[in-house]
Design a protein that fits this description.
Radius of gyration: 15 Å
Number of strands: 4
Oligomer: single chain
Strand order of the largest sheet: 1-2-3-4
Strand content: 35-45%
Order of helices and strands: EEEEH
Structural class: alpha+beta
Distance between the termini: 17 Å
Shape: elongated
Helix content: 25-40%
Number of helices: 1
Largest sheet: 4 strands, antiparallel
Number of domains: 1
């Protein structure tokens, strides 16, 4: 991804991570989430969007945490006096 589209929040559990991206359009912020798994191949770290059986609960958990974080951001935007802590 380009520097112009860096994640605004990242959630990692073990080798599985969710990156949250914000897209502003028509005076509203839309959020997208990319989930990936990191692994080491020799001395090099690689990333994949493929998950094994043992990764699936972590995928579900990071997706749940990302959903909760996005929901909190949207609630804060609707009620500015209850703003959540800033992230990355």
């Amino acid at each position: 991804m380009s520097d112009n589209n860096k994640p605004i929040h990242r959630i990692r559990l073990g080798a599985v991570a969710a990156s949250v991206f914000a897209n502003d359009a028509q005076e509203k912020t839309f959020y997208n989430v990319a989930i990936e798994r990191s692994y080491k191949d020799g001395e090099e770290w690689k990333h994949t969007k493929s998950f094994g059986r043992d990764d699936l609960l972590l995928v579900a958990k990071v997706a749940d945490l990302a959903h909760s974080w996005i929901h909190a951001q949207q609630q804060a935007a609707a009620n500015p006096e209850n703003k959540p802590e800033p992230s990355l």
